[in-house]
Amino acid sequence: MAFDYPKHEKLKSKTAIDLLFSQGKSVSKYPLRLVFVENPDGKEKMQIGVSVSKKHFKKAVDRNYFKRLLREAYRLNKHLLHDNIEKNHVFMLLYQSKDRLSFQEINEKTVQLFEKFVANLK
């Protein structure tokens, strides 16, 4: 599996995002939260979006920095999800804290979050 984040894996569909927040389930590992839903219409096995709260980070520069860290953590650890799901899913990865964690800590929390998600599937 390639360690990339191609365009077709990016969650951009408004209908998929609406479905995600209306019917999705979530798994949390402070300060991250993964909202997910099965997507029978989707052509891709996984699509993921990232979000950082404007409430916690007022400056766009800070929000964009943490979104970049979340995308990188996903890119490096997506094999944990890809190898363990059979059906198509859409995900939203949310950073929900005022705490400014380092990339190392965010990466560790992402791995723990993905493992918790996989354990909940079984």
Automatic annotation (TrEMBL):
SUPFAM superfamilies the UniProt entry points to: Ribosomal protein S5 domain 2-like (SSF54211)
PROSITE patterns reported in the protein's UniProt record: RIBONUCLEASE_P
Pfam families according to UniProt: Ribonuclease_P
Keyword Repeat: no
InterPro entries: Ribosomal_Su5_D2-typ_SF, Ribsml_uS5_D2-typ_fold_subgr, RNase_P, RNase_P_CS
Assembly behavior: Consists of a catalytic RNA component (M1 or rnpB) and a protein subunit.
Family: Belongs to the RnpA family.
Protein name: Ribonuclease P protein component
Gene expressing this chain: rnpA
